[in-house]
Amino acid sequence: MQIWVDADACPQVIKEILFRAADRAQVLTTLVANTPLRTPPSDFIRTVRVAHGFDVADQRIVQQVQPGDLVITADIPLAAEIIARGAHALDPRGELYSEDNVRERLAIRNLMQDLRSMGTLIEGPAPFGPRERRLFANHLDRLLMRNRPA
C-alpha cells in the first residue's frame, strides 16, 4: 500500500498526521501538488510537483495509483475514480469513501454546485476542527493496520 495525497487543498494538520503515520507505519506517502511543499526529512515521504492547471494533480494521482493504495482527497470526482480503480479514498475531514457513498456524494456535490451558481446557496463547508482531525486519524489508523504486511 502507498498513500497519495491531493496536497494543494489538504489542511496542514492532516499533512502532519500523515507525516507521522508514514514514518510509524513505514508507508511511502507521496504528496502531489502544483506548489512547492515543505515536508520533514523521511525515507517514506516524497513530493511530486505538477504543472498548474485544472485537475493536473488529480490526473497524476490517477495515473500512478494501484489497487489497494490510499488516496487522501476532498475532491469527490477524484475519489470516485480512485474507488473505481480498486484503491481507497479518504476525505481529510475523516469520511471514508466507498462504492456506495461516493455516487451519493457526487450527486450532492452537483446539486450544491447548481444551487451556488443560481445564488441560492452561498455557504461552504463547516469549519475544520478537532472532530474532523480525530475522524481522519482513526480511519487512517484502521486502514494502515488492515493493510499492514504480514
In words, what does this structure look like?
The longest helix has 19 residues, at 99-117. The protein has helices at 12-25, 56-64, 76-84, 99-117, 130-146, and strands at 3-6, 29-33, 45-49, 70-72, 88-90, 96-97. Helix 1 (12-25) runs parallel beside helix 5. It contains five helices and six strands; from the N terminus they run βαββαβαββαα. With 150 residues, it is α/β, with parallel strands linked by helices.
The biggest beta sheet, please? 6 strands, mixed
Residues in helices, as a percent range: 40-55%
Poorly predicted regions: none
SS summary, helix count: 5
Percent strand equals 5-15%
Q: Write down the overall mean pLDDT.
A: 89
List the helices and strands and how they pair.
Layout (H helix, E strand, L loop, with lengths): L2 E4 L5 H14 L3 E5 L11 E5 L6 H9 L5 E3 L3 H9 L3 E3 L5 E2 L1 H19 L12 H17 L4
Parallel strand pairs: 1-2, 1-4, 2-3, 4-5
Antiparallel strand pairs: 5-6
Helix pairs in contact: 1-5, 3-4
